[in-house]
Write a structure and sequence with these properties.
Radius of gyration: 20 Å
Strand order of the largest sheet: 3-2-1-9-10-11
Shape: globular
CATH architecture: 3-Layer(aba) Sandwich
Number of domains: 1
Largest sheet: 6 strands, parallel
Order of helices and strands: HEHHHHHEHEEEHEEEHEHEEH
CATH superfamily: TPP-binding domain
Helix content: 25-40%
Oligomer: single chain
Structural class: alpha/beta
């Protein structure tokens, strides 16, 4: 729920006005947006359902799967996790509603999320910058090459060898197609992260922002807290400072505060993304199974 005393309907009206006035929109998002869409890394019930063996070992959420695990368990976890959050074929309704909200405004997306939910929700993949990587790619751990590899066939191979009772995969573990060494999912964890796949979109976004210097730019930030503030939260604030006609709307139930030096150009919304979008958009109707084809 929104913070007590906060008028969410009034905030929605202000956001509608700011959106109408905006010439360009930059959507920025952290983990809170995907959590509001149903992919909450702290959800113990979902963790128990997907990873019963790891739950029996004492782990309680995906956030905690950073502890050392035997490689067979580690890859079993990654296969199930990525299949659940990255390769689900259905678009997510929350992301579809956000896409509908932006409409035909000139817009870009920058997100720390690596789940491709924006692209599956109807956003143009060529206008999405994911600086933290993508579960859809894997890389050499060394790395021996700047090339990354499609993780879909790898996940399918691992799932075919996965035993839910033990949480482990059997058979050969993944290896680098180039050097036969160890591999890891292409997400930013340390200095070995291969960022080559994301540099073209980074350059296109920077070019777009340069041409937005005199435009009325609205930054819509969803669910970006302080786990990695240098990726989403602080860059949005700095853009607002740098672009004279920019405004920032921060939607975050726990950390909605905005800097004092940006007073008058920001709006803090202490609510979940789905709660706000409930008031801003009309949900997509479910298909009528009785309708004639």
């Amino acid at each position: 729920m929104p913070q007590p005393g906060f008028d969410l309907e009034a905030a929605a009206e202000t956001i509608r006005t700011w959106l109408d006035e905006a010439e360009r929109v930059l959507i920025t998002a952290g983990a809170g947006l995907s959590a509001a869409a149903g992919y909450d890394y702290g959800d113990e019930d979902r963790f128990r359902e997907l990873f019963p063996a790891l739950h029996r070992l004492g782990l309680r959420s995906r956030y905690l799967v950073g502890v050392p695990l035997p490689p067979e368990l580690w890859w079993g976890y990654w296969a199930v996790h990525i299949d659940d959050i990255r390769f689900s074929p259905e678009p997510n309704p929350l992301y579809q509603r956000l896409r509908s909200l932006v409409g035909d405004k000139d817009h870009w997306v920058m997100t720390s999320n690596v789940d491709a939910l924006f692209a599956r929700g109807g956003f143009d993949p060529d206008r999405i910058f994911t600086p933290q990587g993508d579960y859809g790619r894997y890389q050499c751990t060394t790395p021996c090459t700047p090339t990354t590899f499609d993780s879909r066939p790898l996940v399918a191979q691992l799932l075919a060898a996965y035993d839910p009772a033990t949480g482990a995969v059997t058979g050969p573990l993944p290896s680098c197609p180039n050097c036969d060494g160890e591999v890891e999912i292409n997400v930013r964890i340390g200095p070995e992260f291969v960022d080559d796949p994301y540099l073209p979109s980074s350059r296109r976004l920077q070019d777009w922002l340069v041409t937005a210097a005199d435009a009325r730019l609205l930054i819509l930030e969803f669910g970006a807290g302080f786990n990695t503030p240098g990726v989403i939260r602080w860059p949005g604030e700095n853009l607002t400072r740098r672009i004279p006609h920019a405004g920032l709307i921060r939607i975050n139930p726990t950390h909605p505060e905005t800097p004092a030096d940006l007073t008058g150009r920001t709006l803090s919304v202490p609510a979940e993304a789905d709660q706000l979008l409930d008031r801003l958009t009309v949900p997509h109707p479910a298909p009528d199974p009785t309708a004639a084809s």
